[in-house]
Protein 1
Amino acid sequence: MLTINTTKLVTIERHISEEQSIYPSATGEFTAMLRDLTLALKIIARDVRRAGLNDILGMTTNTNVHGETVKRLDLISNDIIFRAMDHGGHLCVMASEENEELIAIPDPYTKGKYILVFDPLDGSSNIDVNVTIGTIFAIYQRLDPTLKTDGTMQDVLQPGYKQIAAGYTCYGSSTTLVYTSGHGVDVFTFDPSIGEFFLTFEKVKIPYKGKYYSVNEGNFHKMSRSIKAYIEYLKLPSSDGVRPYSSRYVGSAVADFHRTLRYGGIFMYPSSFDAPNGKLRLLYEANPFSFIMEQAGGMAIDEQGARILDKIPTSIHQRTSFFVGSPGDIEELVSFKELYS
Ligand code: P6P
């Protein structure tokens, strides 16, 4: 794994403002917007850490032991991001996994030139059993950046290659933030005693091939022939010892993706006869993950072999089959698809 473990003391705010200097015309608006988002992520990290103590677990039945109505943690996280981002004047519209429709910027506030799409707390059902969960986000520029009006559905339904930044947090043994703005992938670790995200790994690159595969094998008999053959191949011992691959599946996309990014291999959420477009959402899961993975030298495709970042979204919550990871592993998968096509 080609990673520079940095010893510099650099906070994410300083890292982003240093990145801003790459663009002489930068106005600082983007930096200010990321500062607001980072604040929201710090607050969500705090609430996730205290979920069990505050009786606001992921699957809370909406009433606590005192019979009081309690919001689920993913709805709380959604509110935190909205309240941190709605008044900064940087965004013209938002879209969230938790909101069926677009989220308008309230009228008193200025409409900016950026768009934020996010999953405020992906995998929140896992929090009740202390499994890693996370926040996933992507940022676009609106189609006409000179406008000061509400963002539109066309502004939101842009292909993934139009993303100008993307990232995710893992609320796990530590809180990490993985971020790219198109200049490589950097990893930050949160120090709660100081309240800062510190740069811990710079310009992360995924190995050409890995030794882990990650898929919910409970769906095996619902998958296509080519995917089943590929999974069986990964499990078949090879004379050079490269196979069998090890199986790892957390069931939380941020955890499975993060391990794949750092160690290599492949994460898959295939289509099935009862879920022809798989389960993961294109806008706020597959696209940000794919932007990050390509920046780290990996690949991300759907079951038809199409590049995820080239897909033109048709709705906010549309799903996509998703195969992401080391280029050597993705290319091997494609060869199985061609063989079985
Ligand atoms: P399954 C979590 O609910 C989630 O949306 C993703 O984080 C995760 O990768 C996927 O669903 C797991 O789905 O069907 O394997 O339980």
Protein 2
Amino acid sequence: MSRHPLFVLAGPTAVGKGTVAAYVREHFPEVWLSVSATTRAPRPGEIDGVHYHFVSDDEFSQMVEAGELLEYAVVHGRASYGTPRRPVEEALSRGKLPLLEIDLQGARQVREAMPEAHFVFLAPPSWDELVSRLVGRGTETAEERAARLETAKVELAAQAEFDSTITNDEVRRAAEELVSLMKDH
Ligand code: 5GP
């Protein structure tokens, strides 16, 4: 059976990774999308085991200690997120098209553990677009805005570490480009 490489989609905060992943989940059943564990609470409409495995802090720590996570990170200083290792290994061995949608810290850990994986950076159409997505709601203080812009600068610079870049100018187009890249490998 042909083996596809593991694909990892990452990118700056607010670039729309989750939206692109949700589009892939809905429209490309041939792609196997990893279900992360998280300590954050479910949002309305999110289903345990489908969108995330919602776990307690203790359960998350146990997964870490047992070595069950391929990578994990605290995202935005708020909650822990991690990729269960076994389902990824099974998807790889069964010749599926496996995809992780994770943050940049997680992507770097996967690169250490699985250098043969393919890393895709989801980029905003422009710096101005990213800025308006980040500060769009206008509810932040000036310091918060400055901190977010600084984060965005650092995160955009990570693009150089990636194998491919896809611009998120339109969710459907970006998702189609991602899936066709996966199928070509
Ligand atoms: P949200 O809470 O909005 O669903 O996701 C917040 C952030 O967590 C997103 O940037 C997403 O990429 C990241 N994330 C989701 N699952 C994982 C994971 O398993 N590992 C890591 N490192 N980040 C994740």
